[in-house]
C-alpha cells in the first residue's frame, strides 16, 4: 500500500474527518507530513504557538495542564486514529494544553495554513468538518453531564470501559474476549474520571479483589470488561 493510500485510510478513521469522501480525504492526505516521537517526548507545550494538528498512526499520547502550584491534570488520552491540536485548523491561538507521548508515537501532521487553504478551496470540506466538530462537542457535553451525576465508582468504571473499547479498536484481531492491557496510571484514570486519586485507587482495589483487573506500574490489565458494566449507573 502506498504512503498516500495509508494516509487516506488513517484519516478515514478520525472522527473529525469521518464524513469526508475519498476525494476530500485524498486532498487532506496530500498535505499530511509523517512525524515520529520517542516515548515521554513533549510534542508541544501549553502556551506554545498553535500551528499544527496531529493524527496518531501508532502509539499513545496524553494532554495535560499544569496548575500554578505545579500540579498537573490529565485531560485526555490519545491512541491510533485519534486527533489532537485540531484548533490549529481554525486559528493561531496558543496551545491550551501540553501534549506528551506515552510510548513511541507515529503521527501525521497537518499545518494550520495547509488546512485553512483546503477549507478555502473546498467549502464542502468546511461544512463536513463543522458537523463533525459539532458532534464532538455534544459528546463532550454528554460526558461532562455524566460526570456530574455519576458516583466515583461509576465514573471510573466508565473510563475503564471506554479505554477497553479503544484498545480493542486498535487491535481488532483480538476480538471481544480475553485480557485487555491498558497503558495508563491510577492518577490519569482518576483525572479522566473527575475524581481524587485516593477514591479511584480504592475502587480499583475493589475491582482487583473481584478479579476484574490486575494493576501494575503504569498499566492495568482488564480481565473481565463486561463486569465493569455492573458498576456503571
Could you tell me the radius of gyration in angstroms? 19 Å
Q: What is the H/E order? A: HHEEEEEEEEHHHEHHEE
Number of helices: 7
Instruction: Label the overall shape.
Output: globular
In terms of DSSP E residues, the strand content is 15-25%
Distance between the termini: 45 Å
Structural class: alpha+beta
Q: Give the integer mean of the pLDDT values.
A: 84
Largest sheet: 4 strands, antiparallel
Number of strand segments: 11
Share of helical residues: 40-55%
How are the strands of the largest sheet arranged? 1-8-3-6
> Which residue ranges are poorly predicted, with pLDDT under 50 across at least 5 consecutive positions?
none
Structure report:
The longest helix is centred in the middle third of the chain and has 27 residues, at 123-149. The model has no long low-confidence stretch (mean pLDDT 84). With 233 residues, the protein is α+β, with helices and mostly antiparallel strands. It is 41% helix and 22% strand. The chain is globular, with a radius of gyration of 19 Å. A hairpin with a 5-residue loop joins strand 4 (61-66) and strand 5 (72-78).
Topology:
Elements: H1 3-12, H2 22-29, E1 33-37, E2 42-44, E3 52-58, E4 61-66, E5 72-78, E6 83-84, E7 98-101, E8 105-111, H3 112-121, H4 123-149, H5 152-170, E9 180-182, H6 186-193, H7 197-209, E10 213-216, E11 219-222
Antiparallel strand pairs: 1-8, 2-7, 3-6, 3-8, 4-5, 4-7, 9-11, 10-11
InterPro entries: cNMP-bd_CS (IPR018488), cNMP-bd_dom (IPR000595), cNMP-bd_dom_sf (IPR018490), Env_Response_Regulators (IPR050397), HTH_CRP (IPR012318), RmlC-like_jellyroll (IPR014710), WH-like_DNA-bd_sf (IPR036388), WH_DNA-bd_sf (IPR036390)
Protein name: Crp/Fnr family transcriptional regulator
Keywords: DNA-binding, Transcription, Transcription regulation
